[in-house]
Design a protein that fits this description.
The protein is mainly alpha-helical. It contains five helices and four strands; from the N terminus they run E-E-H-H-H-E-H-H-E. Strands 1-2 form a two-stranded antiparallel ribbon. Strands 3-4 form a two-stranded antiparallel sheet. Keywords: ATP-binding, Cobalamin biosynthesis, Nucleotide-binding, Transferase.
């Protein structure tokens, strides 16, 4: 099989159920999810295989699920096949957020992306995830989508924030507080 097909040379690409322009809102949405998936792979590479094996495994699972998100977003019509992204996947992200958040010290101020390379890379994942979510919101205004994808991306950006802090904490690197921030967060219960 050849990698190049030449079918996109005129500015269109195939989606599940037809062809659309390469700058279509649908392609922007799943393309940004694909970009996010690449950054997640990069972040995994910055983690310590011994200390962060659980994080690496969870992030690898997220990479598979981001592929599922992209597949659901590539459906031209929502009734073409069953959706892959489910509410249970969103619930599991919440469980992971709670688990990793319990490892980190209380946060009182806004923090800046930084600390370790792994944490910095996970903050990049967080911001790209937020952009992917915005692209999905734009798409949903125009065409029907799997609403669980939007929920999944919303929760996933929270997970990236949490695991970025976890990566710093495990490495013994404190979060970088935004020095102009007042104390804006409540202490953990």
């Amino acid at each position: 099989m050849k990698i190049y097909t030449r079918t996109g040379d005129a500015g269109q690409t195939g989606v599940i159920g037809g062809r659309v322009d390469k700058d279509d809102a649908r392609v922007e949405a799943y393309g940004t999810v694909d970009e996010l998936n690449c950054f997640v792979g990069q972040a995994i590479g910055f983690l310590d295989a011994g200390r962060d094996a659980d994080l690496m495994a969870d992030l690898l699972e997220i990479q598979h699920e981001l592929f599922d998100c992209g597949g659901d977003l590539a459906l031209l019509k929502p009734d073409q096949r069953p959706f892959k992204v489910t509410a249970e996947m969103v619930d599991r992200l919440e469980t992971w957020i709670d688990k990793y958040d319990a490892e980190t010290p209380d946060i009182q101020r806004f923090i800046l992306p930084g600390g370790t390379q792994a944490s910095s890379a996970l903050h990049v994942c967080r911001t790209v995830c937020r952009r992917a979510e915005r692209r999905v919101v734009t798409l949903a205004r125009k065409q029907p989508i799997n609403e669980e994808v939007r929920r999944y991306l919303n929760r996933l950006s929270d997970l990236f924030f949490t695991v970025a802090r976890t990566a710093n904490h495990r490495a013994g690197s404190p979060d970088v507080e935004y020095v102009r921030s007042a104390e804006v967060f409540k202490r953990k219960p």
